[in-house]
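Illustration 12: Hydrolase MhqD.
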Amino acid sequence: MSSLSYLHRFEPGDGAKAPPLLLLHGTGGNENDLLPLGRQLAPGSPLLSPRGDVSEHGMPRFFRRFAEGVFDLKDVAQRTQALADFVAAAAREYGFDPNRLAALGYSNGANIAASLLLLRPESLTAAVLLRPMVVLEPKQLPDLTGKRISLLSGRHDPIVPVDHPPRLAEMFRRAGASVDLHWLDTGHQLTEGDLQLAAGFLAAES
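Figure caption equivalent — predicted structure in token form:
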């Protein structure tokens, strides 16, 4: 796989030194979906938005699964490495600072962002995980000291088991990250509350 083989969109920042943002869509999304949200939540930031290279009945994803909540863990690991390599190559190609890169991921995109933190922690300095669940549980956790992670979860989410967000938050804390877990009175869909929390988190990165 070529290091830049992901279909993607890149939008340069406005030169205001805002940190770059990696946008990771949910199942069935594409590289265009989160760009408006990225512009809204992180004005001035360079935006990198790849399309997941796995097709599930025609719907792009970032890794394979056997059923809802049942993942192909070998594929998760391989795709995580490939995405990390893509991000590093994109930083060289487009000239953004990889050491300041934050991720904004929704659902499947949040899960691959969590996998990046666990398997290739050098890829991200911070992450907003919208509706994440536990996919990987490495036997040996990486050192995530200095990294900031915000988990935004719905109390009535029919897809994410209720114990997953606190388990994931605890895993990141044990690895040394600074972690916030917010519960919103909603389901899997995003709300204005999500956007306000995400914007506040990303503004602190600037």
